[in-house]
Amino acid sequence: MKADQLRSGTLWKIIIHENDISAQNSDGERVAIDGTDALDLSHGDIIEVLTDNRVVRLHNGKSSSALIYITNQCNSNCIMCPDSETARQKQNTITKQFLLDYVSLLPSDLLHIDITGGEPTLLKEGLVEVIASTFKVVETAEVQVLTNGRSFADEKYTMQFEPFSKNRLYIEIPIHAGEGKLHDKIAGIRGAFDQTCKGIKLLQRYKIPVGIRVVVQKLNIWHLTDIIDMIANHYPNIMYIDFLGLEVMGNAFKNKDDVWIEFDDVKHFLENAVEHCLYRGIEPRLFNYPLCLFEKKYWYCYKNSITDHKIRYMDACETCPMINRCGGFFSTTIHNTTFQARPIK
Ligand code: SF4
């Protein structure tokens, strides 16, 4: 049997041992398959075969990290979201059972897992089950939930995450401004700031580590130090703030005139924000920017963060000795910037 003839309606993990290739589902059913070359499948891949025999790879067996994608839907409508409003309003077809099956097939030696969406807390109590299953499967990976944090304003919900406080669970929450009016404008929901802030407080009460994300854009570029001060004043246990460059697609593309700011124009604000974080005792981290944008003294907080299949480099990068350290550009953003890559000397 070829891989694209595997039964649909279940997930399959590809197992390659010497010359034997097989696929196994979460019920333990194992089927020998003829070859993986045409589909470029690897040991450890998790695949779904659709009813029209198309094969979708949900996890790359060669990767040390995994993504658990909970839903396309969201309860906010951020102006710079890389998904479009239409995509987020489509009916969600991902069930809790599908997610539990997927998690059961993940390798136990992963280093990092992102649980994301859309808004993952829309799975409600199901998210707690998915996280619990994840920790049963993976031995040492850190598990990061990317959420707008609003659902955690409900203490009855938040307290269900307390058992994970001794695991390696991190909740990553975006703050768009130091006050509610601008934050709510960017999140597209009135009252979002108050809910998110209450959510952070409650998560900290239940000892769940929280990291802050700031998606840097034209609307908040002048307010980065306000955000840092707000975090430092109200949430002294926050250890780090991530500053992220935009991915210009979905809402961000539609609202490009309102949100996009050129890399060279953002550089000074970011370096200033890094200095201010240090002054306030918070670790700064820089994500989704080209390395050559920054002075070398800021490289210590630079993260090579863009997902492999989305990374692009400019022609000039071919001669850059730091290309392996540099995260490059989003495939979408590279077409929307006038930035010229500057190979490191
Ligand atoms: S020249 Fe290219 S590879 Fe080198 S740091 Fe700049 S963007 Fe990265």
SSE topology:
Layout: E1 11-17, E2 20-24, E3 30-32, E4 46-49, E5 55-59, E6 65-69, H1 85-89, H2 96-105, E7 112-116, H3 125-137, E8 142-146, H4 155-158, E9 169-174, H5 180-187, H6 192-205, E10 210-215, H7 224-234, E11 240-244, H8 251-254, H9 256-259, H10 263-279, E12 283-287, E13 302-303, E14 311-312, E15 329-330
Parallel strand pairs: 6-7, 7-8, 8-9, 9-10, 10-11, 11-12, 12-13
Antiparallel strand pairs: 1-2, 1-4, 2-3, 4-5, 14-15
Bound molecules: iron/sulfur cluster.
Question: How would you concisely characterize the structure shown here?
Answer:
The chain has 345 residues and is an alpha/beta fold. The protein has helices spanning 85-89, 96-105, 125-137, 155-158, 180-187, 192-205, 224-234, 251-254, 256-259, 263-279; strands at 11-17, 20-24, 30-32, 46-49, 55-59, 65-69, 112-116, 142-146, 169-174, 210-215, 240-244, 283-287, 302-303, 311-312, 329-330. It folds into 2 domains: 3-57, Beta Barrel (OB fold (Dihydrolipoamide Acetyltransferase, E2P)), CATH 2.40.50; 58-335, Aldolase class I (TIM Barrel, Alpha-Beta Barrel).
How would you describe this structure to a colleague?
With 345 residues, the chain is of the alpha/beta class. The chain has two domains: 3-57, OB fold (Dihydrolipoamide Acetyltransferase, E2P) (Beta Barrel), CATH 2.40.50; 58-335, Aldolase class I (TIM Barrel, Alpha-Beta Barrel), CATH 3.20.20. Helix content is 26%, strand content 19%. It has ten helices and 15 strands. It has helices spanning 85-89, 96-105, 125-137, 155-158, 180-187, 192-205, 224-234, 251-254, 256-259, 263-279; strands at residues 11-17, 20-24, 30-32, 46-49, 55-59, 65-69, 112-116, 142-146, 169-174, 210-215, 240-244, 283-287, 302-303, 311-312, 329-330. An eight-stranded parallel sheet has the order 6-7-8-9-10-11-12-13, covered by helices on one side. A five-stranded antiparallel sheet has the order 3-2-1-4-5, with helices on one face. Strands 14-15 form a two-stranded antiparallel sheet. Helix 2 packs parallel to helix 3. The chain is globular, with a radius of gyration of 21 Å. The model has no long low-confidence stretch (mean pLDDT 94). The structure holds iron/sulfur cluster. Iron/sulfur cluster (SF4) is lined by residues 290-292, 313-314, 316-317, 320, 322-323, 326, 328, 341-344.
